[in-house]
C-alpha cells in the first residue's frame, strides 16, 4: 500500500515505535539455609507454665454488670431509706387514717374531676394529686375524707372504677399507717413490680392465690379501721 498522498496525521500511525530500553535481569537472592533450634533451647523456660487466665464472654459480662447494677441500686435505696420520713410531708393530708391512695390515674385527671368521682361516697376534706418537678402528674393521688364511714365506703367500692377509660387502684395510705412501709421507688410496695422477673414467672394459679390473700388483707384492714 503506497503512502503517497496521505496526510501527515495518518502517516504517523504507520511509523515504527521507538526501541525498548534495556534493563539488566533481576538476580534472585539466595535464601538462608534451614537450621535447627538447638542453639535456642536455653531461651525456653523449664518451670511449670503460669495458670491460664480465663476471659469472660459476652453473657458472663452482661450478668456481672447486671449484678453490679443491682448491688449499686440496693446501696442507694438503703441510703434513701435512712432519710425517708413520710410524716415530714405535712402538705399531703392531715389524717392518714381517713386518707385513700388512688393509683393508676390517667394524666388527664385533675382535682376537680377526681372530686366529682369520689364525693358520691361522702364529704371530701382534701385532694392531693402528686406532680414531679416539671409539674407533670405521676399518676397517683391522695384523698382525705371528713368521716370514717365515707372513707370505708370509697375503699370498699371505688377499687377498679373507670376514670378516663382507666381502671384505678384504691388502697389505704400505708406510709403513715403501717410501720416499716416503703414505696415502690425505695424497694417496697405490694407484690412484685410490673415487668420484673418474679412477675413474669408467676402462673395464673399464683395470681389467683395472691388476689385472694389481698382480699383477705383488705377485709382485715376494713375491720381494723372500723374499730
From TrEMBL:
Extract one GO BP annotation from the record.
Answer: mRNA splicing, via spliceosome
Mind telling me which SUPFAM superfamilies this protein's record contains?
A: RNA-binding domain, RBD (SSF54928)
* Cellular component terms (Gene Ontology): precatalytic spliceosome; U1 snRNP; U2-type prespliceosome
Q: Which UniProt keywords apply?
A: Nucleus, Ribonucleoprotein, RNA-binding
Location of this chain's protein in the cell: Nucleus
**UniProt domain RRM: residue ranges:** 98-175
Q: What is its main location?
A: nucleus
CDD domains assigned to the protein according to its UniProt record, in alphabetical order: RRM_snRNP70 (cd12236)
Matches recorded under InterPro entries: Nucleotide-bd_a/b_plait_sf, RBD_domain_sf, RRM_dom, snRNP70_RRM, U1_U11-U12_snRNP_70-35kDa, U1snRNP70_N
Q: Which domain of life is it from?
A: Eukaryota
Task: Write one Gene Ontology MF term.
Answer: U1 snRNA binding
Q: What is this protein called?
A: U1 small nuclear ribonucleoprotein 70 kDa
Taxonomic source organism = Piliocolobus tephrosceles (Ugandan red Colobus)
Amino acid at each position: 500500500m503506497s503512502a503517497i498522498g496521505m496526510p501527515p496525521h495518518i502517516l504517523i500511525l504507520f511509523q515504527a515505535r521507538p526501541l525498548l530500553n534495556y534493563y539488566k535481569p533481576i538476580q534472585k537472592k539466595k535464601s538462608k539455609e534451614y537450621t535447627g533450634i538447638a542453639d535456642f533451647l536455653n531461651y525456653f523456660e523449664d518451670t511449670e507454665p503460669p495458670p491460664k487466665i480465663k476471659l469472660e464472654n459476652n453473657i458472663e459480662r452482661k450478668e456481672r454488670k447486671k449484678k453490679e447494677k443491682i448491688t449499686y441500686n440496693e446501696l442507694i435505696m438503703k441510703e434513701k431509706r435512712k432519710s425517708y420520713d413520710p410524716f415530714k410531708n405535712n402538705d399531703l393530708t392531715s389524717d392518714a387514717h381517713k386518707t385513700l391512695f388512688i393509683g393508676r390515674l390517667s394524666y388527664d385527671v385533675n382535682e376537680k374531676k377526681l372530686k366529682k368521682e369520689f364525693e358520691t361516697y361522702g364529704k371530701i376534706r382534701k385532694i392531693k394529686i402528686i406532680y414531679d418537678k416539671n409539674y407533670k402528674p405521676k399518676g397517683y393521688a391522695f384523698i382525705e375524707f371528713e368521716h370514717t364511714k365515707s372513707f370505708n365506703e370509697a375503699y370498699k367500692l371505688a377499687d377498679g372504677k373507670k376514670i378516663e377509660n382507666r381502671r384505678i387502684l384504691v388502697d389505704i395510705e400505708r406510709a403513715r399507717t403501717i410501720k416499716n412501709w416503703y414505696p415502690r421507688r425505695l424497694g417496697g410496695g405490694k407484690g412484685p413490680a410490673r415487668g420484673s422477673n418474679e412477675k413474669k414467672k408467676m402462673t395464673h394459679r399464683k395470681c389467683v392465690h395472691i388476689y385472694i390473700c389481698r382480699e383477705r388483707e383488705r377485709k382485715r384492714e376494713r375491720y381494723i379501721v372500723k374499730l
